[in-house]
Every structure is written in structure tokens, then in C-alpha cells.
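Progress report, Aim 2. The chain analyzed during this reporting quarter is listed below.
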Amino acid sequence: MLALVVFAQLFSSGLSPVELGRTPTVMISAETCVGCHATVHGEWQKSGHGQAWTDAIFQREYRERPLAWCVHCHAPLAQQLAEVRAGGGRLANEGVTCAVCHVREGKILAARRRATSPHVTVADESFGGPQFCAGCHQFNFPRFASDGKTVVGYGPVPMQNTVSQHAAGPDAETPCLSCHGRSPSRHRMPGAHDPEMLGRAFGVSVCRSGAAVVVRVENRGAGHRLPTGDVHRHLALRVWRPSTPERLWEQLWLRRFRALDGGGKEQVEDTTLAPRERRLSRIELASLGGASDEPVSTELRLVFTIDEFPLPTRPLDAPSYAVVWRDSRRFSDMDACPE
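Predicted C-alpha cells for the chain:
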């Protein structure tokens, strides 16, 4: 019972920093853990968790609107928030560091305790499950105080809805770590920025039907919608011939929102792909222009930012998108679409 109560109170859903309680200072930084947990530390350091604060996409957004609410998830500890307010530092740069998930009141929290562990451990098999992940990956649009900076609560509409999407899908009984924990120490946590992960999630193919190109895009491997997470993420499917780029065919799949008078937002459109959903897009060859023997290019991108092509006024020192699929073939060389 103690473990379940502790786990339920681990996070504040971003409304305040994570408090470690009576925890020795030596247990706060990941640098303390590396001596005994080198493999875990190495995976974590390169993960989205380890780079949650230093990530270039996040840092650009934070510089433009430096809200404490953002810090509460990207550098969650109270000690990190204090460091950020003082100008930043090494602990803040650790992002979602080991103690954020694994330390409270000087004790180690985990799914189980190894017999050789020297730590006082609170163990429960629910640790690391979907509801645990929901502490950071499931929250609604915030409502702000009159100063426009202080978050005072949440509206009725999810801003990030990944955990609920998973719970409503065909893989609800499959834990998040079954996919996102596929590494030796289960701390690399690959996601949308990982090519191998994207390859497992998407199925894409191109074929010919009459005088048209047909592109099939399927969410074949994700237990949640694609894309999920940040509201700016969207898919861009494009088909064109190199000599006539001005006649490019394009389809975007995304979420759209509008502001509510009382604060927060409501969703007005969602064209993201549900688990196992398949979309067929038919593009008439004549609409693309170009010569009949010229290759037809197709590309599917997962775009991470609101500006796929950042302007010089908003530079971004990181890729704004990942290529999920790219193909270039003559129409005559494409397989005929199955009946």
C-alpha cells in the first residue's frame, strides 16, 4: 500500500516542481549513479529524458516564452528549478534525471528490489507502467492567471494525450516499456526521433492504379495515434515529379485547436492515424505534370515543429523533421495495386 500511495503522488502534472522530501543531496544528481549503473546512465544520458532540458527544439520555445510550467516537466526537480532561476547549471542540464523517477524521501523507487541492492527500496510492479508515464505524458491545455505566465490549472481538452490513446487502443494491455524499453537497460526510451522506432511504427507503400499513384500509409506498430505528443507534430505526405515541383501534391495529418474564452483550448480536427489505421491517397499522374518517363518521388515526413522550414529569425540547431519514407521510381516500374 505504501508503494502505491507514493507512486500516485510522484508528479504534479506540471503544476509544481518535483519535491524529493528528506533526500540527501548526494542522491540528487545522476553523476552519483554512474559509478554503479554505467550502462543505465549511458542510455539515459542519450535519451529524450536525459536531454529534456538541453533539447534544441525545447530550448528555442523556452527562450521565447520562459514559463516555470515548462521547467516543471523538462527539469522537474525543485533543485533544478532553483538552478534555472539562477541562470542554469549542471543539474538542470540533466533534464529528467534519475532522481525524478527513482528517489523520494531518501529511498529508491523501483518495480522490484534486487537482492544485492544496497539501497532502501520501495518496490511495486506498477512502477514504470502507463499510469506512471501519465505523470508527464498526459495533460490538458493549461489555464493561466491574469499575468499570462502562471499556470493555475488545466482546461478540459488534452494537450498531450498519449497515455489515453494507448488505453483506448488495441494494445492497451501492452505496457509502454514493451516498445519504449527495448534496450539492454531499458532506459534509452526511443521515440519519434529514433529511425528504428519510426520504421516499426509506420508501414508505407506506393503502387499504380490506372493513371494514378496510390500511396498507403499505415500505423502498423504504435499503440497510440501517429503522431502523438507535442501539439506541433504532424505528418506531411508529398508526391511530385522533379521537373515540376510547383505541382507537388501534399497531404497533412495533424491536430487543430481553437482557444476557449475561459482559458485552454478545444480540438476542432484530428487527422492523425489511430493504431492499425490505414490511409490510401490517390494522386492522378496528370496532376503532377512532367514527362511520362520521369520518376515519381514520394516522401512521408514526421514534422516535430510548427515551422518545418525555420526562418532565420527563429533558427533551430536541430532537425525539424524526420523522413519516414522516401521513394523515387518511374510509374511503369511501380507494382500494380492489389485489387
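The longest helix spans residues 38-46. The CA atoms of residues 121 and 329 lie 58 Å apart. These observations will guide the mutagenesis work planned for the next reporting period.
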